[in-house]
Design brief:
Number of domains: 1
Radius of gyration: 17 Å
Strand content: under 5%
Structural class: mainly alpha
Mean pLDDT: 94
CATH superfamily: Ferritin, core subunit, four-helix bundle
Shape: elongated
Oligomer: single chain
Length: 174
């Protein structure tokens, strides 16, 4: 049986993951309205992934006798200054999620909740990958710069990342 304190902390993580899913969905729609199909597809995939992260916690709480709360998620912004701002926001949010996961690990350790600590290790690895991916995206965007054709080239870079992800999924990789 999971402690009430750990259950409450995991329910807060559900809210954070749900917000990430909606934030990335809003960003995807914004990119789609600009005709940036590569960015749109990338952010849609990220949104789906964040929802999956949320659902894993839902399922885990049920397995350990806890109760997952369906989150009331605040509405994310709908307008953004630039594509560069979008990806900087994604990276910042991923860093926030990492910090939260680290706090959950610390709480699980403090409570000698080895089951939850083991469960959360998947998130530790996932967040390392997410942050590395977003640093890579931001590095590419920085190299492209902010000239008149930058949106075109950023979108093409995102299409390349989407193709790599599709190949990895098809071959059983990440």
């Amino acid at each position: 049986m999971i402690s009430k304190k750990m259950e409450a902390a995991l329910n807060k993580q559900i809210v954070l993951e749900g917000y990430a899913s909606f934030l990335y969905l809003a960003m995807a729609v914004w990119c789609d309205n600009l005709g940036l199909s590569g960015c749109h597809q990338f952010l849609m995939r990220q949104s789906d992934e964040e929802r999956m992260h949320m659902m894993k916690i839902f399922e885990y709480l049920g397995e350990v006798g806890g109760f997952a709360l369906t989150p009331g998620v605040k509405e994310p912004p709908r307008q953004f200054k630039s594509v560069q701002e979008v990806f900087k926001m994604v990276y910042a949010h991923e860093q926030k999620v990492t910090k939260s996961i680290n706090g959950l690990i610390a709480l699980a350790s403090k409570e000698n909740d080895y089951s939850t600590e083991t469960f959360l290790q998947w998130y530790v690895n996932e967040q390392r990958e997410e942050e590395a991916l977003m640093r890579n995206v931001l590095d590419r965007i920085k190299l492209i710069g902010e000239g008149p054709q930058s949106l075109y080239f950023i979108d093409k870079e995102m299409e390349a990342i989407n193709r790599q992800a599709a190949v990895a999924e098809a071959t059983g990789g990440n």
